[in-house]
């Protein structure tokens, strides 16, 4: 099982910390509906890129960020999260029939349901 090296969460209004590690982040609305799962090594740049999306300013309320030492590990975990958790606005990896992304030390998770 892969364990994050750092975990943080908070209100979107409070973020501003770039980091050298790669993270898997989740964005939720005010009702804790999962809106988006992504990866980055720079939250400031990545979240400013999301700012052009209509849902970002109207729905995004809080975040959960988990940092990993490897981009490959974060990428595999991001894909698994998108397939199994069905975030509202992710488009990539929404098709569970795609071949799995295998990374040593990261257990594979199959889709628990078909994303709408």
Structural overview:
The structure is a single chain. The protein has helices at 43-50, 54-59, 71-85, and strands spanning 6-11, 22-28, 34-40, 62-68. It is an alpha+beta fold and 116 residues long. It has a domain at 6-85. A four-stranded antiparallel sheet has the order 1-4-2-3. The longest helix is centred in the last third of the chain and has 15 residues, at 71-85. The radius of gyration is 14 Å and the shape is globular. The model has no long low-confidence stretch (mean pLDDT 81).
Quickly count the helices: 3
| Gross geometry | globular
What's the rounded overall pLDDT mean?
81
Helix content: 25-40%
Largest sheet: 4 strands, antiparallel
What is Rg? 14 Å
Order of strands side by side in the largest beta sheet? Answer: 1-4-2-3
How far is the first residue's CA from the last residue's CA? 29 Å
Tally of DSSP β-strands: 4
Class based on secondary structure composition and strand pairing = alpha+beta
H-E order: EEEHHEH
Quote the beta fraction: 15-25%
Which runs of at least 5 residues are low in confidence (pLDDT < 50)?
Answer: none
């Amino acid at each position: 099982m892969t364990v994050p090296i750092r975990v943080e969460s908070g209100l979107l209004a409070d973020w501003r910390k770039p980091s050298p590690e790669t993270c898997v982040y989740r964005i939720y609305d005010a009702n804790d509906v999962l809106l988006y799962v992504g990866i980055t090594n720079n939250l400031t740049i990545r979240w400013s890129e999301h700012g052009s999306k209509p849902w970002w300013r109207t729905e995004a309320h809080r975040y959960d960020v988990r940092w990993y030492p490897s981009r490959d590990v974060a990428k595999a975990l991001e894909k698994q999260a998108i397939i199994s958790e069905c975030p509202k606005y992710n488009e990539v990896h929404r098709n569970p029939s795609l071949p799995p992304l295998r990374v040593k030390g990261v257990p594979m998770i199959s889709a628990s349901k078909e994303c709408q």
